[in-house]
Design a protein that fits this description.
Blueprint lengths: L10 E2 L27 E2 L21 E6 L4 H15 L3 E8 L12 H19 L3 E7 L8 H14 L3 E5 L9 H14 L11 H4 L9 E5 L6 E4 L4 H9 L10 H14 L6 E8 L4 H7 L1 E3 L5 E3 L13 H15 L1
Parallel strand pairs: 3-4, 3-6, 4-5, 6-7
Antiparallel strand pairs: 1-5, 2-8, 7-9, 8-9, 10-11
Helix pairs in contact: 1-6, 2-6, 3-4
């Protein structure tokens, strides 16, 4: 596993050169749906959430961390979104937990050789999409566990890069799911809520000068019931080119095959946009809690925090949903 002296996973640019992460400029802003400037949102906030209306579309430019299990996961799931964001000036980084060293039926292949091949394929896809940095954690394919070590590495990366948005697997979907996909999704979701925002988790980060951070938006890929769509029609060709970078995984398919499939779909459903779909967690501090957290004068003329100890809870994600997610996690651990 690749780490520096302080225990951080080493990050490298798409060309393989080491780079230091820096916080992206810009923030998420509210935009009008149908403007073409941001993702389209569908559905409404869960009943009982602090925010009853659907949150605004995700717009930027901002920064995003895409946390996946294997090389090629991101290309199949969200390369259109990544291409769109990079074209809009977003700062996008990839984190790959495993090297994908088991994904072959070639009897002459070894895990070490396959991992090297797939790393180069992923770097080529990152260069094509405009991804700023590829961070490899180096876990063996197929053996990922939802461990404290993995959560800690993800928390540290979130505190280093301070993303506005995280994209990862939906670890809690009820249908069939690859072990690595499931555990990477769960570890990332746990890292985002509540660990990364609470400074007393993984205190070595604070000792190393990495303050807590709150991620406000999470897009869960591979969800059984997606409620958020991104129109990637304008970036479909870039997505296909990125997928085709993974030569070892596409079974000999060519760009002509993808073009033919799109033409057949267009004939059946003229004008239908090409979309990538996610389940969205919009984690925000409700207005009443934000007001309660503001310092208030005390009897001695100083200030006290009325909201001390109150967490920055959910907006579009209901308390009930987070509780249920915790129950599911407890059942798995039991």
């Amino acid at each position: 596993m690749s780490k520096d002296k302080k225990g951080k996973a080493k990050g490298e640019g798409a060309d393989g050169k080491s780079k230091k992460g820096k916080k992206a400029k810009g923030s998420l802003v509210v935009g009008a749906e149908g403007s073409g400037q941001g993702a389209k949102v569908s559905g409404v906030a869960p009943v009982g959430s602090a925010q009853q209306e659907a949150p605004p579309p995700i717009e930027g430019p901002g920064s995003a961390l895409v946390i996946m299990a294997h090389p090629d996961d991101a290309e199949f799931l969200c390369a259109g979104t990544v291409a769109k964001w990079c074209a809009e000036g977003w700062d996008v980084r990839y984190v790959l937990v495993t090297g994908g060293d088991k994904g072959t039926h070639d009897e002459s292949m070894t895990p070490e050789k396959l991992a090297a091949i797939r790393e180069e394929e992923q770097r080529a896809a990152c260069r094509l999409l405009g991804v700023k940095e590829l961070i490899l954690l180096g876990y063996p394919d197929g053996f990922t566990s939802e461990s404290s070590e993995l959560r800690g590495q993800i928390v540290r990366l979130l505190r280093i890069h301070k993303p506005d948005v995280v994209i990862t697997w939906d670890g809690f979907r009820g249908s069939f799911n690859h072990r690595d996909h499931r555990n990477v999704g769960i570890a990332t979701m746990d890292a985002v809520y509540p660990i990364v925002r609470d400074r007393l988790f993984y205190q070595r980060d604070e000792e190393d000068g990495l303050p807590s951070h709150q991620v406000n938006e999470v897009l869960l890929a591979g969800a059984a019931e997606p409620d958020y769509t991104v129109d990637v029609t304008a970036h479909w060709e870039t997505k296909v080119d990125a997928i085709l970078c993974h030569v070892s995984q596409v079974g000999g398919r060519t760009k002509a095959d993808f073009v033919k499939e799109r033409a057949e779909r267009e004939e059946k459903e003229p004008g239908r946009p090409i979309e990538e779909r996610f389940r969205r967690w919009s984690i925000r501090r409700p207005a009443r809690q934000a007001a309660a957290a503001e310092p208030a004068p005390d009897a001695g003329g100083g200030t006290t925090s009325a909201g001390a100890g109150a967490g920055a809870e959910v907006g579009a994600v209901s308390e009930k949903e987070l509780v249920e997610a915790g129950k599911l996690k407890g059942q798995r651990e039991g």
